[in-house]
Specification:
It is a single chain. The chain has 287 residues and is mainly beta. It folds into two domains: 139 residues, Jelly Rolls (Sandwich), CATH 2.60.120.730; 136 residues, Sandwich (Jelly Rolls). Helix content is 7%, strand content 48%. It contains two helices and 20 strands. The strands form five sheets. Strands 1, 3, 6, 7 and 9 form a five-stranded antiparallel beta sheet that branches. Strands 10, 12, 15, 16 and 20 form a five-stranded antiparallel beta sheet that branches. Strand 4 and strand 5 form a beta hairpin. It is globular.
Length: 287
C-alpha cells in the first residue's frame, strides 16, 4: 500500500440506523478501508450489514457476521473495535497482482462514486465511526472485487445444486454459510462435501474435513458453519477460475459463458439454509 489517510466523515452514525461513508474520487486505487469503532457500547458485533456501492451498483452485500467470518478465515486481526474491508489479496506475494480487486476511483467514475453503507443495530449506544483509507497508485482498469450473495433452502438431506451464476467474472472463492450441524476437528459439518463442475467436468470435489486441512496448511482459519471452496488457498492468483472462454465461430471468435454446477451434499435430515457468497473479480456493471 502506497499511502493511507483519513476518509470523509461517516454520516448518520446512530443505533438502528444506516451510516454512510462517501469515498471521494481521486487518481488512486482504494485497496482497503479501516473502520475504527467507539462510543459507550459499540463494536463490530453491532454492525449487522455492510453494503458497498459504486454509483447505483452494489458490489459488496455482506452481513456483519459474514464479513467477520471472512476476515477471520483469512487470519485477520480479531480486535472488535475495528472492522476491516480488504479489496486486495493480502497474502499474495506478487506485487502489484495482490492489489487486483482494488477500486480505481477514476476508472469507475463513469458509473459513479463509491459509497459504503454501514447498518448499525439497536444494541449500539452512542456509537462513533472514523474511517481510514488505504490506497495504491492508479491501476487503470475498472475491475473490482465483489462479494455477490445467493441463497438456497432445502428441507432434506442429500445432493443439491446451488443456484450460482458468474457471467464471465473471475472466481476466487465461494463462501457457503450453512445452518444445522457444525463441523468438529474429526467430523464433517452438515454441508459435508462440495462438488464443483465446469462445462460438465469436475475441477474440485472436496469433503469438509479435507478442505479444512488444506486451508490450515496454508494458514487459513476455518470458521463455524462455513464451507469455503477456496480456489486460491495457496495464494496462487493463477488458480482463479475463469468463467468464460473464446470459441471459434465463422471467421472469428466469440466469448461465451462457461457452464457451472456446484453440488452441495447435506447430511442433516432437516436440510439447511445455505447463504452463498461468490467472491469474484469483475467489472462494476456485470454481476
Amino acid at each position: 500500500m502506497a499511502f493511507n489517510k483519513p476518509l470523509l466523515q461517516v454520516v448518520g452514525v446512530a443505533a438502528s440506523s444506516t451510516a454512510t461513508l462517501r469515498i471521494a474520487a481521486e487518481a488512486a486505487t482504494l485497496v482497503g478501508i479501516r473502520l475504527a469503532l467507539g462510543g459507550t457500547t459499540f463494536d463490530n458485533t453491532h454492525i449487522s450489514r455492510v453494503r458497498l456501492k459504486i454509483g447505483p451498483r452494489v458490489i459488496w452485500d455482506l452481513t456483519g457476521t459474514q464479513l467477520r467470518a471472512i476476515n477471520a478465515y483469512k487470519n485477520g486481526n480479531a480486535n472488535a473495535q475495528y472492522l476491516w474491508l480488504d479489496f486486495s489479496e493480502r497474502d499474495q506475494a506478487a506485487f502489484p497482482i495482490k492489489e487486483l480487486g482494488g477500486i480505481d476511483l477514476m476508472a469507475v467514475l463513469n458509473v459513479g462514486e463509491v459509497y459504503l453503507e454501514i447498518f448499525i443495530d439497536s444494541g449500539a449506544v452512542a456509537p462513533t465511526i472514523t474511517a481510514q483509507g488505504f490506497f495504491e497508485q492508479s491501476q487503470g482498469n475498472a475491475g473490482v472485487l465483489k462479494f455477490v450473495p445467493f441463497s438456497f433452502t432445502q428441507a432434506a438431506s442429500g445432493k443439491f445444486t446451488l443456484p450460482l451464476n458468474f457471467r464471465g467474472s473471475l472466481m476466487k472463492r465461494v463462501w457457503a454459510f450453512y445452518t444445522g450441524t457444525n463441523w468438529t476437528s474429526t467430523t464433517n459439518g452438515n454441508l459435508s462435501r462440495l462438488e464443483c463442475k465446469k462445462n460438465g467436468l469436475v475441477f474440485s470435489d472436496c469433503y469438509d474435513l479435507d478442505a479444512r486441512f488444506d486451508q490450515e496448511q496454508n494458514k487459513k482459519v476455518p470458521q463455524a458453519n462455513l464451507f469455503v471452496a477456496d480456489f486460491i488457498v495457496d495464494n496462487n492468483h493463477n488458480a482463479n477460475i475463469a468463467t468464460m472462454r473464446a470459441v471459434n465461430q465463422g471467421n472469428g471468435q466469440v466469448m461465451v459463458y462457461d457452464s457451472f454446477e456446484f453440488n452441495a451434499y447435506l447430511t442433516d435430515a432437516g436440510g439447511a439454509t445455505v447463504n452463498c457468497i461468490a467472491e469474484v473479480l469483475d467489472s462494476v456493471t456485470n454481476l
